[in-house]
Amino acid sequence: MKKNIIIGQSGGPTAVINGSLYGAVTKGLQHSESIGRVYGMINGIEGFLLGNYMDMSELADDDSLERLRVTPGAYLGSCRYKLPEDLGDPVYPQIFEKFQELDIEYFFYIGGNDSMDTVSKLSRYAKTVNSPLRVIGIPKTIDNDLIKTDHTPGFGSAAKYVATMVREMSLDVSGYKNTPSITIVEIMGRHAGWLTGASALARKHKNDNPLLIYLPETVFDIDTFFAQAKKALAITPNVLVCISEGIRDADGKFICEYSGATGTDTFGHKELAGAGKYLENLIRSKFGIKVRSVELNICQRCSSSCLSATDLQEAIQAGAFAVEAALAGETGKMVTFVRESDTPYALSFSLSDVNEICNAEKKVPLDWITPDGCDVTEAFLTYARPLIQGEEEVPHKDGLPDFIYR
Amino acid sequence: MKKNIIIGQSGGPTAVINGSLYGAVTKGLQHSESIGRVYGMINGIEGFLLGNYMDMSELADDDSLERLRVTPGAYLGSCRYKLPEDLGDPVYPQIFEKFQELDIEYFFYIGGNDSMDTVSKLSRYAKTVNSPLRVIGIPKTIDNDLIKTDHTPGFGSAAKYVATMVREMSLDVSGYKNTPSITIVEIMGRHAGWLTGASALARKHKNDNPLLIYLPETVFDIDTFFAQAKKALAITPNVLVCISEGIRDADGKFICEYSGATGTDTFGHKELAGAGKYLENLIRSKFGIKVRSVELNICQRCSSSCLSATDLQEAIQAGAFAVEAALAGETGKMVTFVRESDTPYALSFSLSDVNEICNAEKKVPLDWITPDGCDVTEAFLTYARPLIQGEEEVPHKDGLPDFIYR
């Protein structure tokens, strides 16, 4: 008898999270000999508990699936919901009852660390009750901080977005050679500097911006920063600095926490700003020159305008590989990427025990950061460059990207 | 005897300012029967005074001109330099001596309000000294605030960028239906709300975001805003609000001026944040829900990732039209756009007296803003929609846009 599939999305969205959904749905529909229906969870496991799901074959009638492939954001909706540690909690039989009602034997969860925690718990619970349910995690995070995998889907497109914007802003700020300036660009990644490091890809020639790059993996010292900024201003009048939102000082305190510590607006509300805004004010006082800060913010995770064809293709393949793995009997695993070579870039797919992945974080290796702490090494660039290759055309209608809406 | 051309760029860059440069250079090189050399001013009139210029034919040897066409930012470098009001100032003969040294009879300045002021002064000075110099302004500003022209080159691409990002962010924030949220997007345009209004183009269906749009042309009242935000939250749990950086209250005070009025960081430096950050903190205190603010910042003026083919084409045509006009004997004029029809969209080119343009500002007509002050009307959309049509492929190399560098 045919069994059914359900797929969910969880955590922060990326530009290619729907690519993985597309890959899993397409592969599931292909296996019509063994798979009956392909369901999608609405708003992850949290929404599923409330009875929210849809039949994904609805999208197969027209070009919807093709548009889903390049639509950013979580099409099925997302959640931030942590299952209880105690597998004896009544929520587990509730969830499994719903799986049974829908004859679901395969569950795929697309997400990062927290989502892999859900995969771990559900697969372990399945064993305790002898359920045939197989659970596979499909990695997703722009932060690129999952262990056991060379990189994660979503990182390549975010890295391409960051490098593109930094290159464009560098052209913008270089227009005023007669007016020295510092532009601080704040990039996502609170604990891991992968995305901030990717800004180095923007450089086109020697002494090109960004001249300074600060990752959260090393200590951010304000006096060292001032000295390095001064040196950079001697190289070019218009300096662009890239910082991770999570840079910290020697005491481990986030730089952004210094911001607005005593600041309140006229209504008495405490004002919080980011690390970039804080450094902007600080360096303006110190150097007395034009300073600006730019927070790339959520566009870096949700824009399809700089889709990496490599990233999208791998996201799709990860979804498809997960379905094949589950059909082959695997469970409690996450799809992982194995880099076979840098040049030419070659990748293969594998699986790793999700229990080892869910509570760990992969940071940028310290020897991929230069000794002065304000740049990444060639090894970092060799790692990151293949992941941003290739452009993907997003269908447009009436001048704007023609996304699919649920 | 053949005479020479010089072209300069001034003010803030746009995604298509080099499109106009490309148009003027290409047209100048075509007229080899009457034009000798085509020069470019480095860093505008300020750099030219220091003797900085280049021969643009250098770019004609390979694909450089083609890459220039889609390279954002001011390729020649920019300046913010105001010529003295007194035409008797010694700077005028200095400039004209340099024009004469290079046998320049045609000067084209690509820029906004302030650049048109330079065009005005130089053309008026030319008359006083019976110089044959002809000066023509080529409009450029993402703010779209020049009078006597239907719109300005640079606005269409910036509007397309704003609408695209707002559509993508709207997908992003709509992922969490179970968590009500407000996202405030701050858009450029201190005195004119054209770009902020363009965010309305992002809507795909009824009740789609952005649900609220505030332009600087109307009074921003905080209590009205709270009431409208509350109403919007009843329509959808994840509300996206677009505001102009220049929204002001009934007293004419910029909302961003309320920010950090009493705020200092731990080093005692005054912290300044934008209107979006200010409203973020305010509405978080008031509503107690998740609130985020996003400042689109300089990417909206310098990114080539959302180039409007219509905008780029018009920017090129404006540059070419300026050259033809000067050759036909015109001076002291700015190229203007005349909209012949909305559907099908049709445009023609004309000239207007630059003296009438240089110190005026075109704002969004009040009857293009809804009576409740939180949206634009269908008339606005009919005006803006044609300007974002068509996509332009930017050549890429090694995963990133392959721009040209001076």
From TrEMBL, chains A, B:
Annotated site residues (Important for catalytic activity) in this chain: 140
* Entry EC no(s): 2.7.1.90
Q: Name the gene for this chain.
A: pfp
* Binding site residues for substrate: 141-143, 188-190, 245
By its UniProt entry, which InterPro entries does this protein fall under?
ATP_PFK (IPR022953), PFKA (IPR050929), Phosphofructokinase_dom (IPR000023), PKF_sf (IPR035966), PPi-PFK (IPR011404)
Q: What is this protein called?
A: Pyrophosphate--fructose 6-phosphate 1-phosphotransferase
Could you name the active-site residues?
Answer: 143
GO CC, sorted alphabetically, is: cytoplasm
Q: Which organism is it from?
A: Candidatus Onthocola gallistercoris
What is its cofactor? Answer: Mg(2+)
Q: Which HAMAP family match?
A: Phosphofructokinase_II_B2
